[in-house]
Structures are given as C-alpha cells and as structure tokens.
Amino acid sequence: AANYLLLGICIFAGIFLVYVLWVRRRERLKQTRKEMFGLVERVLALLYENHPAYLAINHIRDQLIPPQERDAKAGVWAEVLSYIRNHESRVRVDVKQIRGEEFRVWQWLPDIPVTSPSVSTKTPPQQP
Predict the structure, then answer these.
(1) Helix (H) or strand (E) holding 107
(2) Of 68, 66, 56, which Cα lies nearest the Cα of 106?
(3) For residue 61, which of 76, 48, 83 has the smallest C-alpha distance?
C-alpha cells in the first residue's frame, strides 16, 4: 500500500511539474510576443516619422534596444524582422549604400489613396 501511495505522489508531482513548466512557458511566450509587437510599433513610428528617408535596419535596432540587452533580445528582434517582412506592406526592404557601406534598410511607403471605380449610371442595353 505504501508503494502505491508513493507511486501516486510521484505521478501527481510529475503532472504538477509539467503543468507548472507549461504555464511558465506560455507566460514567457506571451511576454515575448508583447515585447515583439511593442518593438514593431516603435519601428513603424520611427519609419513613419522619417518618411521618405530609408533607415538602416541595424541602426534602428541599435536605437531601440540598449547595448546591454541586445544579446538577450536577439530572438525578439528576429521575430520583429520576420513580422515586418511577412506582414507589413507599408515597409519596403532594400539594400542601400550609406557612406560607402552596404546596409539592409527599411523605408516607409506612403499610403496609396484608394479610389473606387466610377459607378456607371448607364443602364445596360435591353434584350429583345
């Protein structure tokens, strides 16, 4: 009976440990995602404010993330790069020479005015 009790306690402890680890991982992922979107918003604001200029991507990173945090936030920055590349049509990615050195750059693209096609007031010809 003592063996069954010990086995039950071990199984419960194992399940509890997995649950705690799962909750911590989920919270860490939620925090990383929140941080990533915060950086995306700051990048977009920087690009918008400096439109029509292009800005070197690494310089933007260096402006937004303090030097002592860059290694720790490298994964978050990689997610920012991926998000902007895959989901942000208002940002153009290019390679430009800045003071003789090639850099990957971002440039804000202005909004394109959307015009609806003119609605024809003519009635279609009648079929006999």
Answers:
(1) strand 101-108
(2) 56
(3) 76
